[in-house]
Amino acid sequence: MADTETLVAPASAAGTSALALIRVDGPLAHGLVTSALSRSETPAMRHASMGLWRSVDGTVIDQVVVTCHAQGASHTGNAAAEITCHGNPLLVRRIVEDCLARGARMAEPGEFTRRAFVNGRMDLSQAEAVADLIHATSERALEAARRQLAGEMGVSIARWTDAALSVLATLEAHIDFPEEDLPPEDPAGPCSKILALAQQLEAVAATERHDAALRSGIRIAVVGAPNAGKSSLLNALAGEARALVSAEPGTTRDYLEARMTGLPLAVTVVDTAGLRSSTADLERAGMERSLTQAASADFLLVVVDRSHPAPELPDKLMALLKEGHAAVVENKSDLPSHPALAQWLKNLPRLSTCLKSEDGASKARAGVAALLEKADLVPTGETLVVSARHADSLRRAAKALEQAARHLSLGSKETELASAEVRSGINALGEVIGRVDNERMLDKLFASFCIGK
């Protein structure tokens, strides 16, 4: 379908830069740039054309490069043009204002991508991936967004839908043509297929737990008694001296954050105040903040001095030290280990290191990265991670299929009910890629995009 309005908006970030990009999309796009460049013919499609951009009153605004895209061959499917000018915000504003004077209107956030979706240039999961790709903060997040943008989710949805339709065709054949010469109805066959498909959908929906990690990263809290080496561990993971290290206990009174280096995912490490009995109001306030940071962290690293007995830590912290959520870092591996330490928190994985040397710091970084992978906090590059919206649709589809299987297990009298549930499951799958007429949902989704996208 062709859009009747012509949109314009800057597609590059605001601020001063060498170059800036302005997008024009709609029926007036080609005529608009042809007139502004004082050309008698529209520039060749998909060829860069340099010229002087003149306003409607003939004033030269800037020297620009224009690339036109034909109807059906652009990002949105409409006739479109991209204008590259010098990156002075004043020049960008003047060219946009001139496009408005020539009949275009300012695009709303995400309106170009919405046009691409409505015109069938991409499905809804791909449209969402555009925003994810723009805002990705790590290599793993970029990879996940690239895979979604390439249409992997759409391919998977098509495969699952075909499987459900195959079962539905069998069920409805027996409903609509009960007296025809059909194979004997065997509910066990469709039932097993439906349950297998439901299990697949549940497994994919479970990857939602990685969605927040991809979008905002993982937060690790470094906790323990004073002088165990918490600040040294922060510095080792950050790859630089972010925290002051001192032999005097209680020097860290507040938490300090740093980004961990060398990982494909964004990881923030939080150094917290040492936990011990203290009468100083300031130190006690720092320890309260330590417990707050620990409670909100995705993973905890409990740093201990391996030459000392096991530290006495607050009950609130001990309750958080669960398998898959925490690990013990035994610092000062150059010293003999205290015998009592071996049985302390023995259910948690351990990492032994000496943070005085660069070699020890490198081993600590590698060890912590391995701990995060083992705890399944970091999705692999092969994992197709779904968003909360996708997960909700997949779980509803799985639930409908499971209900269909229950109906089939009760015998042929329940076949019509099973058929209806399979249809509900197929509809839920369609919501992932946008086969749903819900303007409010689309308005909310594309409103989160930036202008020009």
Explained architecture:
- Helices cover 43% and strands 16% of the residues.
- It has helices spanning 29-36, 89-101, 111-118, 124-135, 139-149, 152-176, 188-205, 211-216, 230-238, 281-296, 315-318, 358-374, 388-409, 415-433, 439-447; strands at 7-10, 17-25, 48-54, 60-69, 80-87, 105-106, 218-224, 256-259, 267-271, 299-305, 326-331, 350-352.
- Helix 13 packs antiparallel against helix 14 (415-433).
- The two termini are 19 Å apart.
- The relative contact order is 0.12.
- The model is unreliable at 179-185 (pLDDT under 50).
User: Which descriptor suits the 3D outline?
Assistant: flat
Unreliable runs, pLDDT <50, ≥5 residues?
179-185
Main sheet overview: 6 strands, mixed
CATH architecture of the largest domain: 3-Layer(aba) Sandwich
Mean pLDDT value: 85
Q: Could you give me the name of the CATH homologous superfamily of the largest domain?
A: P-loop containing nucleotide triphosphate hydrolases
Count of spatially separate domains? 3
How many strand segments?
A: 12
Report, as a whole number of angstroms, the end-to-end distance. Answer: 19 Å
What proportion of the residues is helical, as a percent range? 40-55%
At the fold tier of CATH, the topology name of the largest domain is Rossmann fold
**Helix/strand order, N-terminal first:** EEHEEEHEHHHHHHEHEEHEHEEHHHH
**SS class:** alpha/beta
Tags for this model:
single chain, 453 residues, alpha/beta, Gyrase A, domain 2, Four Helix Bundle (Hemerythrin (Met), subunit A), Rossmann fold, 3 domains, 6-stranded mixed sheet, 12 strands, 16% strand, flat
